[in-house]
Amino acid sequence: MEDLGLIHQLIVPIFGHKMTFNIDVIVMTWIVIFALLCFGFFATKQKSRLPGPLQVIGELFVKHLFELTEDALGERLSKKYAPLICALFMFLLLSNWLGVIPHLEEPTKDLNTPLSLGLMGFLIAHYAGIREKGLGTYLKAYCEPMFIMAPLNVIGELAKVISISFRLFGNIMGGSIIILVVSYLTFSIITPPFLNAFFGMFVGTIQAFVFTMLTVVYISVQVN
Amino acid sequence: MAYDIQTWIKVAAFTGGGMAMGFGAIGAAIGEGYTAASANEAIGRNPKLSGDIFKAMLVGQAIAESASIFALVIAMMLLFTKFAQNTLTPFVLLAAGLSMGLGAIGSGVGSGFPAGAACKGMARQPAVSGRLTTNMLIGSAVCQTPAIFALVVAFILLFQDFSSYPVSPMWAAILGAGISSGFGAIGSGLGGGLVAEASCDGISRQPLTATPVTNVMLLGQAVTQTTAIYALLVSFILMFKSFPGTDLLAPPMALLSAGICMGIGAIGPAIGEGFAGRSAVAWIARNQEHIADLTRLMLVGQAVAESTGIYSLVIALVLIFVV
Hints:
The complex is a heterodimer of chains A (224) and B (323). Chain A is mostly helical. Helices cover 73% and strands 5% of the residues of chain A.
């Protein structure tokens, strides 16, 4: 119970500024990245017409996420952005599932991870928007319905980053706090497997999907 | 009469626990009753499936109940835990109770809607009962998100060490944080329930559209939660920003009003966005050729409905940082 909210930090002073590194989150993120690299390597190692189990899983991911992107962005743009969406979903899914394994915790539990992924989606969406529509049309969209509304439109755009990242962060952190508190109250006897299945796997999958889909939608809103 | 701090902590713990469980019991009961009513209607239409419908009703009610169980956990902790002897502790306990109690209302009512629609859908279209159950579980679980946000705020309030903060503006900031996340969760829970209800209904009418309907439902619910997330953001700022100590009454009141402004301001937009999502999902099930148009219109409509929530956010931030 005492380790609630405890974060292992490495503070490095550089030129008078203090750089703070959250060690746990970095290690957990690298575990996820390494697992995904292994998955990618072994899924594509022996490609055959009769696919092995890993290849089937990989094909499922690719097929469904490409379809999802194509529905929202159209065929031409989806070729460009679908690999990104695929990678994002698989990273988030594995990150959210990582807490199920004892002694490991979700990198998405730390606000820094969802916030940076949200900022990434935001920047990509606006880059895509400027590229597709041109700078003039892009800027004009902020002055709708009147140009007095421009500040509120800008705040509305920035609020999208907040909403997408806090949604993931709140759900994952809420789930892990509930698991921690309930297993403390029941002396870790009964509920943790069930709670882990619900908050770790089920809610984790839904939230990873929601985050991915919102990123696609943000891109498509800017592009169209 | 002057009481010592021990007494005030006890008073606040009892009041907070009572409010957490009292308010927290409202929503789940309404939602479960709605589910049971729909299950009755469904069994009346198709008595052969009474076993399946009964099971679906129980599962749906169990999920709707979880919001109340969160409130129960917080109420128990308030009643039975020993808290630090600190002038701010009474406010912390009161705010934690308010946050969880109010936050459980919307999610409880909202999760009842998809469960009821799933029961009715099973009676209408028994062949898709598996898919309906999955969709109901996803929809109800997402409805619980606002209650989980309120729970997170309540836990952070209970376990954060506030002893180094100045008492004078901080008491209002703590109360504001609880009120903001509590009220802010009401609308989103309800609105998300409306969207999920339409999706269960739509899948039972047209099982072929199950995948797009579930996707758009998730999208609609996610956008519906946006104002609850603004409320969560305001409570985080109120809890973690260090305010300078003051003897004046105006700065604490500004922080308290920031919480009230964002909390109450988040209710309306979320319910409105829920209506927009509901009709979009319902019509995607009936007219699957125009999914892209319907989704776009839903998103634009929700963005406009949300603008009042953004006004509340702006005013809350101005109250915190400028005034």
